[in-house]
Amino acid sequence: MSAVGRVARALRRSSARVREDIAAAKLRDPAARSSIEIALLYPGLHAIWAHRVWHALWVRRVRFLARGGSQVTRWLTGIEIHPGAQIGRRFFVDHGMGVVIGETAEIGDDVMLYHGVTLGGRTRDAGKRHPTLGDGVAVGAGAKVLGPITIGAGSVIGANAVVTVDAPEDSVLVGIPAKPRKRTPGEDTRAVLTAPEYYI
């Protein structure tokens, strides 16, 4: 394939991912009114779009530029994502101010974070030191998920929870320290994230 063909294919793929991101935001945010509003005014999307560029540089070992670019994104959006973090498809950050995602964090597909969430470390040791979130995890405002732990797919972390232990799939984690419990059948994610008993 020619260089022009490769560029055209990459642009088509990028365009499809952008449309997918906008659709995911529209699905998750009841305040969203139009695709153009989402594309232009949602800092969570701007942060993930920029992260894809910085992450591509990071894995190609252009690390100073990747870190510099991530800092510019932080200044512009209020969302700090280390360029080394691995993030899946249809990731959405609602509001976003104060979100911090560490270097060795791994985030699956269809994950949603609210403002003030930290996916942080608890050690200065090299290697894996940040959380892994499975597909479909939702994390409430102000929650801190710390250390090289794994949160299973479909789990929900309540607002202001402090999570330092692994959780199996379809768990609910609330409190300080948070302890996982199994989600009840039919329990709605949005209800878990907004119910008063889940706030600290």
Automatic annotation (TrEMBL):
Give GO MF terms, alphabetically: serine O-acetyltransferase activity
Reaction(s) the record says it catalyses: L-serine + acetyl-CoA = O-acetyl-L-serine + CoA
Coarse class of the protein's main subcellular location:
cytoplasm
Q: Pathway, according to UniProt? A: Amino-acid biosynthesis; L-cysteine biosynthesis; L-cysteine from L-serine: step 1/2
What keywords appear on the UniProt entry?
Acyltransferase, Amino-acid biosynthesis, Cysteine biosynthesis, Cytoplasm, Repeat, Transferase
Task: Tell me which GO cellular component terms the UniProt record holds.
Answer: cytoplasm
Q: Which domain of life is it from?
A: Bacteria
Enzyme class (EC, first level): transferase
| CDD domains membership | LbH_SAT
Q: What's one GO BP annotation on this UniProt entry?
A: cysteine biosynthetic process from serine
Give one Pfam hit by family name: Hexapep
Q: What is its EC number?
A: 2.3.1.30
Localization of this protein? Cytoplasm
Q: Which family does it belong to?
A: Belongs to the transferase hexapeptide repeat family.
Q: What is this protein called?
A: Serine acetyltransferase
Organism equals: Candidatus Microbacterium phytovorans
